[in-house]
Design a protein that fits this description.
Blueprint (H helix, E strand, L loop, with lengths): L1 H11 L4 H8 L2 E3 L2 E3 L9 E3 L5 E3 L2 E3 L20 E5 L12 H6 L2 E10 L3 E2 L3 H10 L3 E7 L6 H12 L10 E3 L8 H19 L4 E5 H7 L11 E4 L20 E8 L9 E6 L3 H10 L8
Parallel strand pairs: 6-7, 7-9, 9-10, 10-11, 11-12, 12-13
Antiparallel strand pairs: 1-2, 3-4, 4-5, 6-14, 7-8, 13-14
Keywords: Glycosidase, Hydrolase, Signal
Protein name: Lysozyme M1
GO biological process, one term: cell wall macromolecule catabolic process
């Protein structure tokens, strides 16, 4: 993945060191510090005490880091994108990404996996078709928190690494608590994020919705340094503020689940905004650096 993205960095006039650095040292993300990504796959287990153990040591909880307030970008200038799953392939219909791109949608997140066994049969074709038509593409994993986090992260990482990988960082989609407490959920999320980082080498995006983050996750600020993709269908031109979980910025905003998109035969498609400019989106795709940190 590093090699594949270096030409993109060169096009943007950026150093490839921006990609290499996160892979060789630990870094702090909100309250949660990821351990350095090892040369080979690591194992991560939750301790149940607010830490997660890895072969590189115990994940610590340092003081919060400062988060820059998100710069304002006019709503109409925020890049549009969609996210899709098997539901967007009625009767096996393909998504026409040439038409999607022509309709003004510049990126797509495709469901790759769910739990420990499900793989989206359309994922590989969607990933290749999107990128072949100039649409930035990322994969997401739908969490089943009743099953092992590390096993899910491993399957997810393996799935999104095929056929040229992705052009956007990996996404954890967490929407169901399945009886776990906030503390248990937090340990599960830490383990998944760490294992995904170990295998992919990029800081994952967290997708969820407001009430889940505030209630089931206990409104913890521990993950506020990770890019946030928030679902909030409020009919406004920005997500509801203040954001939950200590986030000061949002990276992606899913503002509708009822959009009709040229090129997608399904009647309902999730529509999203990126919280920056198109140039910032390209930088984010190349480096994983969110707009507020692009200084």
């Amino acid at each position: 993945m590093k090699t594949r993205l270096v030409p993109v960095l060169a096009t943007l006039g950026l150093s490839s060191a921006l990609l290499v650095a996160p892979l060789t040292s630990g870094f702090s993300l909100g309250h949660f510090t990821l351990a350095p990504a090892p040369a080979h796959a690591d194992t991560t287990t939750g301790n149940g005490d607010g830490t997660a153990a890895t072969s590189a040591g115990t994940v610590s909880l340092p003081d919060p880091v400062a988060v820059t307030v998100q710069p304002e970008v006019p709503y109409d200038e925020m890049p549009n994108g969609i996210d899709i799953a098997s539901w967007q392939h009625p009767n096996g219909a393909d998504v026409d990404f040439k038409r999607v791109q022509a309709a003004g949608y510049t990126y797509v997140f495709v469901k790759a996996t769910e739990g420990t066994h499900y793989k989206n049969e359309y994922y590989v074709n969607d990933a290749m078709a999107a990128q072949g038509n100039g649409v930035l593409m990322g994969g997401y994993h739908y969490a089943d928190v009743s099953k092992d986090a590390r096993a899910q992260a491993a399957m997810f990482a393996d799935t999104i690494s095929v056929k040229g990988g992705t052009s956007l960082p990996p996404v954890l989609d967490i929407e169901e608590a399945k009886g776990l407490s906030a503390a248990q959920l937090n340990v599960w999320v830490r383990a998944f994020l760490q294992e995904t980082y170990n295998r992919v080498g990029l800081k994952p995006i967290i997708y969820s919705y407001r009430s889940f983050l505030m209630n089931q996750m206990g409104n913890t600020p521990d993950f506020s340094g990770f890019p946030l993709w928030i679902a909030d269908y409020n009919g406004s031109q920005s997500p509801t503020l203040p954001l939950p979980g200590g986030w000061k910025t949002w990276t992606f905003w899913q503002y509708s689940s009822q959009t009709q998109i040229d090129g997608v035969q399904a009647q309902r498609v999730d529509a999203n905004k990126f919280g920056g400019t198109m140039l910032q989106l390209r930088v984010f795709a190349a480096t994983g650096v969110v707009p507020a940190e692009q200084k």
